[in-house]
Design a protein that fits this description.
With 225 residues, the protein is mainly β. The protein has 1 helix and 11 strands; from the N terminus they run H-E-E-E-E-E-E-E-E-E-E-E. It has one helix at residues 10-20; strands at residues 76-77, 91-99, 113-124, 128-131, 136-143, 151-159, 165-174, 182-183, 187-188, 198-207, 213-220. A hairpin with a 5-residue loop joins strand 6 (151-159) and strand 7 (165-174). 47% of the residues are buried.
Amino acid sequence: MPYVIGRPSKRALAVVATTLGMLVTASPALADNQNGNYQGGQVPTVASVPASPVASCPAVNSVQSLSALGDLAYYAPVAGGTFEDAAAGWTLNNASVVSGNEPWNVVSPTDSNSLSIAAGGSAVSPTFCVDNTFPNFRLFAQSLNGGPRSGLNVSARYTLSTGQSGQVSINWLSASNYSSWAPTPALPLGSALNAGQTATVQFVFSAGWGSAWSIDDVLLDPYAK
């Protein structure tokens, strides 16, 4: 049975909106790229600069990488989020790139790595740009040895243009739902932003003390294309 994505709950969107809705920066205008020719395009970093009515994130290549799972949205990997380049740009704590890919090989049939996060460990992505054309994201996850109450916390770390910073929890993945590799549902992100707003964000993946986890193919952009 294919994995069909569902829209995030109003409560989840409200939580993200409370923090991400305050982040306003500007960058070059976004142009859609739906030609299906993914060539390793990554979500780029963006500097904090004054707000603009036409602010948007730089364009990225995106393709229907999850179509085999029943999801026809267009996606692009977060920088280093396929873990085929030794997690370049990521900050790892008790985590490492290991052999073994999520079994669908949604980004490339030749991909062969994933990220292993030990119990109590964490992984922080590079900074990337988010606007309302990147409303949600998905990834693949697997709990390696956890009990039913073990989990992986998925958070967004943000920095305001004023220099203030914080972190908001987006979802807690339960080990009981990820005893083998599985894609997450759509998790909210840029859907909290108004048109013309951008945010600088890092993902933070923190494994509970009861379980080690593997993650792979961290992808942005359902619904936008």
